[in-house]
Design a protein that fits this description.
Blueprint lengths: L18 E6 L3 H17 L7 E6 L5 H11 L4 E9 L5 H20 L3 E8 L2 H29 L1
Parallel strand pairs: 1-2, 1-3, 3-4
């Protein structure tokens, strides 16, 4: 019988997991903070630095291309998408937010590989700054939790 995961009852254990991170460079101050928080949390959960591949791409629309390449390469227990899209005065925000989000989800489903999506979509810079650390940490925790869950489901 399969039992539901009860959440944060036990500390997450990242030892032995292989994690790939794809970080957009656009809005670099925010994405660098997301990455720093994510990497620190992965380390705190026991993921070895040598088991983390961290690649950078120009922007949020390029994140899924690199995620796809990592997923096809194989050997990862989970991936992490990091980016920041801040609303501007044109429809470009909606296009980038919708397309990057849909693509990340499609890759996760196509490859049955957890992808923690921490591509921030905010109205302004202040909202992005307010979320950068917590969302980076959250992405690391989601990646480890989902990697462990997927191992029990396979």
């Amino acid at each position: 019988m399969l039992h539901a995961n009860k959440g944060a009852e036990a500390p997450l254990d990242g030892q032995g997991l292989r994690i790939g991170i794809v970080q957009a460079r656009f809005n670099a101050d925010i994405t660098d903070a997301l990455a720093a928080a994510c990497l620190a949390e992965l380390e705190a959960m026991g993921v070895a630095n040598t088991d983390i591949d961290h690649v950078r791409v120009p922007g949020a629309l390029e994140v899924p291309v690199a995620l796809q390449a990592l997923a096809e390469r194989g050997g990862y227990d989970a991936l992490v998408a990091l980016g920041c899209i801040i609303r501007g005065e044109t429809y470009h925000f909606e296009l980038v937010a919708n397309e990057s989000g849909a693509s990340v989800s499609r890759i996760a489903l196509d490859h049955q590989l957890p992808i923690a999506n921490a591509i921030l979509t905010t109205e302004n810079l202040e909202q992005a700054v307010a979320r950068q650390t917590d969302k980076g940490r959250d992405a690391a925790r989601v990646a480890v939790e989902m990697a462990r869950l997927m191992a029990t489901l396979s």
